[in-house]
Design a protein that fits this description.
By secondary structure, the protein is mainly beta. It contains 4 helices and 30 strands. It has a 10-stranded parallel beta barrel. Strands 7-9-11-14-17-20-23-25-27-29 form a 10-stranded parallel sheet.
């Protein structure tokens, strides 16, 4: 039986291994312990996409990281061809716009860096696959999002990607690894991806800043159609935002934000399955003003000693049709699942093993059904909890 520290050390070691490998992580849990195992398999571009045009040959893209190669790469992407990115480092000082359809991009573990505050990848096309990429912000802020899948995109797959080291120490707003616009997007797949070290460290006394690894949201006042998406077998690690006098921490692994006052207008079909979360400061998942989210077989580990998380999963904003099945929480969260306002929520097989929490508030709960003090008018209907277990380390 491995200790919690050994689990986290092994997980971090796997996260920091070369992105020229596929991270395959398995977290096997029972009611009393968690055991992390990881293995890496090499990526061979000659086998996975031999027929694709090479961006080095096609547009003379620089894969040494010495010069800005964004214009050359954009020209290659605009050709509409499926592309192969030979191993290396690509410096891009402007966003890459993926607006074509029916194309695949094999990055072979290549790294993207920038001298500027940009959104590295903007995706507007449909039927696109991006695989085996690394976005490294080099501990600098991005232009709100490292990647974004924009309104109207269909069937976009992100496979074995890595987004790391977003560290905002400037008053430039919130920071996210990936935005998925909920308006008219369909078929988004995020599979075996890693989001590591995403932090919002600047305190702005007039504005609450946020950070999250994956953000499902919309800027629209009304949604023209629902979305469906799958996030599976991903690792989200070290998501941080300060706890200061002007605001509380707003750091989440995955965040859903719909339209306040009209939850029925945003009925989704989103599945979060088999993901692992390490040290997401406030919550691993926040579900607000949306419906139709299924959370299956996810695992939460927290080994921090300076601050404990508010809840592994927080469901609020009159959300509806939310199910949580096979959830394990190990570490310093106050509550595994906190339902503040919701309709038709089903919780099954919630397993918690808590350490020594540092908060003086409510601690050590498996399921908490209670409105936030400022939202006492929210309602609860059809809440079911089965197979619920809480233990202490």
């Amino acid at each position: 039986m491995a200790s919690k520290l050994a689990i986290v050390v092994a997980a971090r070691s796997a996260l920091r291994s070369s992105v020229m490998h596929v991270l395959v992580a398995v977290l096997a849990c029972d009611h009393l312990c968690a055991q992390w195992t990881a293995r890496a398999e090499p990526i061979d571009l000659a086998l996975t996409c031999p027929q694709f045009a090479s961006v080095v040959d096609l547009v003379n893209a620089d894969n040494t990281g010495a010069t800005d190669t964004a214009p050359a790469l954009q020209a290659a992407i605009d050709s509409g061809l499926s592309l192969r990115f030979p191993e290396g480092t690509y410096k891009i000082n402007a966003s890459l716009e993926f607006a074509s359809s029916n194309a695949e991009y094999c990055f072979g573990g290549s790294k993207f860096v920038s001298d500027n505050r940009i959104t590295f990848f903007r995706i507007d096309g449909s039927n696109l696959v991006l695989r085996d990429f690394e976005i490294d912000a080099l501990c600098l802020p991005v232009d709100t999002y490292a990647m974004r899948i924009n309104k109207g995109s269909k069937n976009v797959s992100l496979i074995r990607g890595v987004v790391r080291d977003i560290a905002n120490d400037e008053p430039v707003g919130s920071q996210y690894g990936l935005l998925v616009d909920l308006d008219s997007t369909h078929g988004t797949l995020v599979d075996h991806c890693v989001f590591e070290n995403i932090s919002q460290v600047e305190d702005n006394t007039s504005t609450n800043h946020f950070c999250a690894a994956i953000y499902f949201a919309t800027a629209s006042d009304a949604i023209t159609s629902a979305t469906n998406a799958v996030v599976r077998d991903c690792v989200v690690a070290e998501v941080y935002s300060p706890v200061v006098a002007s605001s509380v921490s707003n750091a989440d692994g995955i965040r859903f934000s719909g339209i306040p006052g009209d939850p029925e207008s945003l009925q989704l079909d989103v599945v979060l399955e088999g993901n692992t979360f390490l040290n997401c400061q406030k919550r691993t998942m926040k579900v607000s003003h949306v419906g139709g989210v299924r959370i299956i077989g996810n695992h939460v580990i927290d080994d921090r000693t300076d601050v404990d998380g508010q809840a592994a999963i927080e469901i609020l904003g009159e959300s509806r049709d939310i199910s949580v099945d096979d959830l394990s929480v190990v570490g310093n969260y106050n509550t595994a699942v906190w339902i503040q306002s919701a309709t038709n929520v089903m919780l099954n097989d919630i397993r918690c093993q808590y350490g020594n929490t540092v908060s003086s508030g409510v601690v050590g709960l498996g399921v908490r059904i209670e409105p936030f003090p400022t939202n006492s008018g929210w309602v609860f209907e059809d809440i079911s909890v089965t197979d619920h277990c809480v233990t202490w380390g």
